[in-house]
Specification:
Structural class: mainly alpha
Number of strands: 0
Mean pLDDT: 85
Low-confidence stretches: 223-228, 231-235
Order of helices and strands: HHHHHHHHHHHHHHHHH
Helix content: 55-70%
Length: about 350
């Protein structure tokens, strides 16, 4: 199975890179060994790999071709920076869709990996790569615009952890220009920047209130022209069809149980633990927005990426005394099973089986 062996190879290579200082040649060699297969597999996939692969790249390139001028970037219902990528593809590469896919995939992979490198004091590179690949990689093969936004938001988090607000807000702004839903990541600012826990209950309540008063809030939110297209996600909109993912609900529930069960008593007293878990509980409610609209359930994905760092850190890597390996091993097995069940058995996102005429696969 190509994906499985690719993920294991990249995770092990990143784990080896983690043993070296960032400035060393060995670090960059093993990082390249880890990243290159992901760049090739994602960038050179056939257009049939990924349910959304052909939608926005083709329509965006067609839009640029038809207008043949940069003013087209401000007259479409697609975010401006994604259209800018299409414009670059047309001007520099003759509008080749495969080039657009390669650039998009590269931005997603490299922004996430940059973030992993910046937070490896919390969780080793091999572990963050493992969780990212099995939980997010197949998703990103389909969700391209939001995938770029999620990568930029994740990278932004690594700056706010160090209380660097300017690069954080710059990256969030860029992410919004790739996918408007990235504005939801601003919900994390009070918890990630402040060492106090007084905001946690308000963040959780706001997420729960959005869940129960969804249509009312959306009605007032979409009066702003920038977010007008989200009216189609209301109860009477084109994309109002809701659903419920048992697998996503169960996975998040188990993750939260693991965090509360296996985190040390000392850690639970710290504001970092309280703030992050408040955000993860908030994400639990945001994910349930899929009941109203399957697309709106994605709002919580920006917070969902925090599991990549803090799930293994809370249950294993923060402990200085003798560690039990059961939590980290069992949660790894769970993640692999979830990936197999969702992306292979049920073929969510239509990324399986993998095919590539360029690579001869």
């Amino acid at each position: 199975m190509l994906y499985f062996f690719l993920f294991i190879w990249s995770s092990i290579s990143a784990g080896v890179a983690n043993k070296f200082k960032t400035q060393s040649m060995a670090f960059w060699i093993f990082s390249l060994i880890s990243l290159m297969p992901l760049l090739f597999i994602g960038g050179f996939r056939d257009l049939t790999v990924g349910s959304d692969t052909m939608a926005y790249p083709i329509s965006s390139i067609q839009l640029i071709n038809e207008n043949n001028q940069i003013s087209a970037l401000t007259n479409a219902n697609v975010e401006i920076l994604y259209l800018a990528l299409a414009y670059i593809s047309v001007i520099w590469f003759g509008g080749d869709i495969q080039t657009m896919l390669f650039i998009t995939n590269a931005i997603i992979i490299l922004t996430f990996y940059w973030g992993f490198v910046r937070v490896r004091k919390y969780t080793p590179l091999g572990i963050t790569m493992f969780i990212f690949l099995f939980l997010f990689y197949n998703m990103m093969l389909s969700m391209q615009r939001q995938g770029i936004a999620m990568g930029l938001v994740f990278l932004a988090y690594t700056f706010i952890f160090r209380r660097q607000l300017i690069p954080f807000f710059v990256l969030i702004f860029i992410a919004i220009l790739f996918h408007k839903s990235a504005i939801a990541s601003l919900l994390t600012v009070p918890c990630l920047f402040s060492k106090k826990t007084k905001y946690n209950k308000y963040i959780i309540f706001a997420s729960f209130f959005l869940l129960i008063a969804y249509n009312l809030i959306l009605q007032h939110f979409t009066v702003f022209n920038f977010f007008a297209k989200y009216e189609s996600y209301s109860s009477k909109g084109e994309f109002s069809e809701g659903g419920f993912s048992n697998s996503e609900f169960i996975l998040r529930l188990i993750f939260l149980i693991y965090i509360y069960t296996y985190s040390s008593k000392e850690l639970k007293k710290k504001s970092l633990f309280k703030n992050i878990t408040a955000l993860l509980i908030s994400e639990f409610f945001l994910n349930l927005l899929q009941i109203h609209s399957q697309f709106m359930g994605r709002l919580g994905y920006y917070i969902y990426t925090l599991y990549i760092i803090f799930l293994p850190y809370f249950i294993h890597y923060n402990k200085k005394k003798k560690k039990s390996y059961f939590p980290i091993v069992s949660v790894s097995v769970l993640i692999i099973f979830y990936w197999w069940f969702v992306y292979i058995y049920n073929n969510s996102g239509e990324t399986y089986p993998y095919t590539s005429k360029i690579l001869g696969l």
